């Protein structure tokens, strides 16, 4: 379903007169991703973990057309990901942390109606899918203005929006961020159910316990490179634990880098 093949991303600092207009943190090129390759198949949840600045968000944005990688190829269902190919967006759904694209004075349902219209769904199909999404995400009886939503409700609304056009691939960037442990665990179980329905899911997270709970495989991205991959069974049987293993990888890569 999703194939990332030798993807790299280099951020170039502003040159010439642009240096006076744009504030940049580095004066030299920054290699954010370096030769990253992996696959996510239908029915599978793949977790993406790593320290801050490892390149997780850059990778997710490259997969979902928000960034164009410097080199390598990304395909979804055999189709090359290209920001100019608007149809490619029908293949995936994206949910970002602290979602800011919702209209805060509209209700959850009204927001979904708006995004369904943007996705080109007819009114009857949109109404049916919105009803089902709100019921499944636990929002059907709590439809109020979004500014009154809790963090958990916002996370559920973000996934509901990502699923409106029924994509085969779901990309989740820190879906359990700001959730309490009980709500986070419940959301992980629901993510697992989405994969069991036949979807491919890529989930980036800092919550290692929840990654182990939800994922079939885990990828460790450190310094822009994939440094480790393990199955759910392997992780569950590791007495040192995923956190200890990742701390060791980070230490080997850069002693000053830290893992959340």
Q: Quick summary of this structure?
A:
This protein is of the alpha/beta class.
- Percent of residues in beta strands: 15-25%
Supply the CATH class of the domain at 2-91 and 167-253: Alpha Beta
Q: Enumerate how many helices there are, as a single number.
A: 9
Global geometry: globular
- CATH homologous superfamily heading of the domain at 2-91 and 167-253: P-loop containing nucleotide triphosphate hydrolases
Question: Based on DSSP secondary structure assignment, what is the total number of beta strands?
Answer: 10
Give the N-to-C terminal Cα separation.
Answer: 30 Å
| Largest sheet descriptor | 6 strands, mixed
User: What is the structural class?
Assistant: alpha/beta
CATH architecture level-2 label of the domain at 2-91 and 167-253: 3-Layer(aba) Sandwich
The secondary-structure element order is: EHEEHEEEHHHEHEHEEHH
Low-confidence stretches: 255-260
The whole-angstrom Rg is 19 Å
Tell me about this structure.
It is a single chain. The protein is an alpha/beta fold. It has a domain of 177 residues: 3-Layer(aba) Sandwich (Rossmann fold), CATH 3.40.50. It is built from 9 helices and 10 strands. Strands 6-7-8-3-9-10 form a 6-stranded mixed β-sheet, sandwiched between helices. It has a 4-stranded antiparallel β-sheet with strand order 2-1-4-5, with helices on one face. Strand 4 and strand 5 form a beta hairpin. The longest helix has 16 residues. The two termini are 30 Å apart. The C terminus is likely disordered.
């Amino acid at each position: 379903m999703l194939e990332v093949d030798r993807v790299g991303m280099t951020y170039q600092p502003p040159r010439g007169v642009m240096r006076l207009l744009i504030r940049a943190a580095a004066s030299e090129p920054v290699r954010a991703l370096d030769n990253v390759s992996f696959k996510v198949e239908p029915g599978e949840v793949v977790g993406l973990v790593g320290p801050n600045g490892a390149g997780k968000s850059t990778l997710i944005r490259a997969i979902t057309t928000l960034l164009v990688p410097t080199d390598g190829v990304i395909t979804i269902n055999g189709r090359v990901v290209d920001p100019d190919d608007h149809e490619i967006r029908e293949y995936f759904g994206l949910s970002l942390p602290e979602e800011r694209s919702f209209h805060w004075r509209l209700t959850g349902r009204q927001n979904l109606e708006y995004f369904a219209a943007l996705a080109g769904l007819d009114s009857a199909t949109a109404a049916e899918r919105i009803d089902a999404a709100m019921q499944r995400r636990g929002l059907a009886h709590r439809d109020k203005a979004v500014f009154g939503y809790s963090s958990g409700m916002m996370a559920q609304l973000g996934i509901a929006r990502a699923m409106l056009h029924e994509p085969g691939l779901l990309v989740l960037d820190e879906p359990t961020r700001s959730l309490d442990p009980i709500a986070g665990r419940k959301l992980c179980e629901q993510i697992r159910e989405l994969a069991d329905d036949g979807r491919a899911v890529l989930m980036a997270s800092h919550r290692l316990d929840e990654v182990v709970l939800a994922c079939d495989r885990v990828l460790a991205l450190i310094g822009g490179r994939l440094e480790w991959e393990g199955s759910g069974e392997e992780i569950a049987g590791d007495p040192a634990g995923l956190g200890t293993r990742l701390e060791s990888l980070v230490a080997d890569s850069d002693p000053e880098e830290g893992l959340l």
